[in-house]
Amino acid sequence: MAHIVNPERSYRLLQQRLDRNVTGAPETPVFMQILKLLFSPADAEIARQMPTNFTKLTDLARKLNRPADELLEVLSGMAERGVVIDIERRGERYFSLAPVVIGFFEFTFMRLRPEAPLPELARLFEAYFKEDDRFARAVFQHETQIGRSLVREEALPAGVNGEHVEILDWERASSIVKTATDAAVSLCACRHHASHLNEACDRPLRTCLSFNHGASMLVRNGVAERITNSEAMDILELAKANGLAQTADNVQRNVSYICNCCGDCCGMMSAIRRFDLRNAIVTSNWISDIDLSRCNGCGRCTKVCPVNAITIEEQQLTNRRKRWAVRDADLCLGCGVCYSACRHGALSMNPRPRRVFTPESTFDRMVAMAIERGKLADLILDNTEGLGYQAIGRIVQVLEKSPPYKAALAVKPLRSIFLDTVVRGIKLAAGPASAALG
After folding, report:
1. What is the pLDDT of residue 430?
2. In a 3-state reduction of DSSP, which class is residue 322?
3. Reported pTM
4. Are 130 and 265 a contacting pair, CB within 8 Å?
5. HSE (side-chain half, CA atoms, 13 Å) at 98
6. Is the pLDDT at 350 greater than 60, yes or no?
């Protein structure tokens, strides 16, 4: 690798590249320190030129004008450190640049790494995430998010008003675990991160579950430990017994992870409480209801709710004081942790009046997030070599399902005759176009 003449430029361009990702990475002095700890100048020069879409090693080598075998060695080392993501399909290696979250923050803290400056990184990430709201708002200030809440299945009623209640397989943690083609476990990145700040709670650490291609990638790079589906179910039950809420990959197909989250340490839940970003985690299709005739205001539900969605109110009656729990509908994740804590049968989980949208695939989620965040142009133009007709077809399909004003805002920066046509006839012209391309 040639000597990097201007490493500061490489780091600045890397930050800009990461900020074009759908989850963003606003520039701050703290973030630049993080990049310099995680990327050597040579790594930064490579990473700044990598697309977010998975790119074949040989194509990437041609783009960077590097021998493929030499580049493979460098990228494999970066993947082991968690700053790039790699997958293997049909004997070919594909690489993409890891975002900040879910990405190199988690991959840094999902394991013990004596050789890495974890205490310093923990302090810097804490400052970047929490000193101001720029990063949190870049990631979470929209409707489509990285993670979604899973309801505890034991909390679900058999029916409502005499009617059967449907819960789909991708809404069930048990189904996600049991049907995964591969499973792995690692440390909870958030609680491990907090432990280096002496702020961790006492919940179990070994609770972060990965599945399918995500599990295979993490195991190959030493980030996670392969386990059986049965062992994954045991970890899930242990997490629930410890009052942890389940947050999953916000997709219907090929779910890549289930986090077992606590309100004390979880970054997504912290964003909800600290910055009032109530959409930071997409809710489940369920919401808690409180039977005031059974509730005595004991407060157990308020203590376990990870986002402080339940408070206790009280009123002085003639000869006694009445206490009861009150649930904030806008905050409730529909996780069911409160149901498990209630000893009086006062809490139940009922269907939300309107079903929550869950993207079908990771690519669909990325497109929806890009549309909402005004980054569709970045998604397409940064991946001009990697996006084929199928990917463009998926983009059109997501545009079809978007409100017209969102689609129009997303397409405007592209100044594309093709996509302008799609938006003008969002239901008529785009339907046949997506069918032809998909």
Report:
1. 37
2. strand
3. 0.86
4. no
5. 27
6. yes
